[in-house]
Design goal:
Length: 322
């Protein structure tokens, strides 16, 4: 049973200084995520609210109902310089509640008003609802949308990320965004050795057919509170593959299930991981994708390099800023 909690946020822009993350600022209108992905690294954040990292994470969702007003106020502050805002750094901004609350759309409207650069990453096919806003943001500012598609196999996807949009719907959303002129990419994240790594070529093929230009992948992360959720779901939903997958994860984590070290937590190590990277790279190059993690030109779009940001109606000059 889903429980929804509304709150008034004091701030909506979160910052991070992680060397592993290609953005500094993010916007998260929701806490918790109905998609219920067993591997979600954000699950431990729910414990800070007094909830559990297991089923509470996808069944007790907190909605920041005043998020658009708070963002408007923060973008008006002299301290804001127009850095790219990532939607979302923690939980999915296009989870099902967005269909009724519309907070992400309203936040994007604020960004459009200020011409603030935006980057989106989502598993929610609902993103195509906002194709008009995202295309306009791409025209007057900068906007890149990544659709997260770690599986080509629908059955495996449903087992591990049970309430996310179907794989077919995600590819359809990716195509519609691309056709509208939005710069798009595919995130093959997480890569789960022994489970979805053989699917990398098919995912890249289908994403390229859908018009995606960028691609990246991230290794499965299993911090303490996530590990039992993932392990139990894997054993319950895919019992014949579970032990093979867990062994493969240990194989690329030097015998462990996780590596929290900066610079290492997003990738594996050893021969098996090198083979996965080679598989990704050969098909990425063959299909003409830009590697969004390694290519300098791609990273520019996630960093402040000549921002388009401006405060509307700011004195006399505001009259001419169209």
């Amino acid at each position: 049973m889903l429980s929804v909690y509304e709150e008034d946020a004091r701030s909506i822009i979160a910052s991070n200084d992680s060397p592993d993350v290609p953005f500094r600022f993010s916007v998260n209108p929701y806490r918790g995520c109905f998609h219920g992905c067993a591997y979600c690294y954000a699950r431990p954040s729910h414990e800070l609210l007094g909830f559990g990292a297991g089923t509470d994470f996808e069944r007790k969702i907190v909605v920041k109902r005043n998020a658009p007003e708070v963002l408007h106020r923060q973008l008006c502050a002299p301290s804001w310089k127009g850095d790219m805002l990532a939607f979302s750094g923690v939980t999915d901004c296009y989870q099902p509640l967005e269909a009724s609350y519309g907070l992400t759309r309203k936040l994007l409207e604020v960004c459009l008003k200020f011409r603030n650069p935006v980057g989106v990453i989502t598993k929610g096919a609902l993103v195509e609802r906002d194709v008009d806003l995202l295309a306009e943001l791409g025209r007057v500012a900068r906007c890149t949308v990544f659709v997260s598609i770690p599986f080509a196999d629908e059955e495996q996807a449903r087992a591990i990320e049970p309430y996310a949009s179907s794989i077919a719907r995600r590819f359809t959303a990716l195509k519609r965004l691309s056709e509208a002129g939005v710069r798009t990419g595919v995130s093959i994240s997480p890569v789960i050795p022994g489970l979805n790594d053989p699917q990398i070529p098919e995912i890249l093929e289908r994403a390229r057919e859908a018009g995606a230009e960028l691609a990246f992948m991230i290794m499965l992360r299993l911090p303490a509170a996530v590990r039992p959720v993932f392990t139990e779901r894997l054993r319950e939903s895919l019992p014949l593959r579970a032990e093979h997958v867990l062994s493969a994860v240990r194989d690329v984590r030097d015998g462990e299930m996780n590596n929290a070290q900066f610079g290492q937590r997003m990738r594996g190590q050893g021969p098996r991981w090198l083979a996965i990277e080679a598989l990704f790279d050969v098909h990425r190059r063959r299909l003409g994708f830009v590697d969004a993690q390694r290519d300098a030109d791609a990273r520019e779009r996630f960093e402040l390099e000549g921002t388009t940001f401006r405060r509307p109606g700011n004195g006399q000059l505001g009259l001419f800023e169209e």
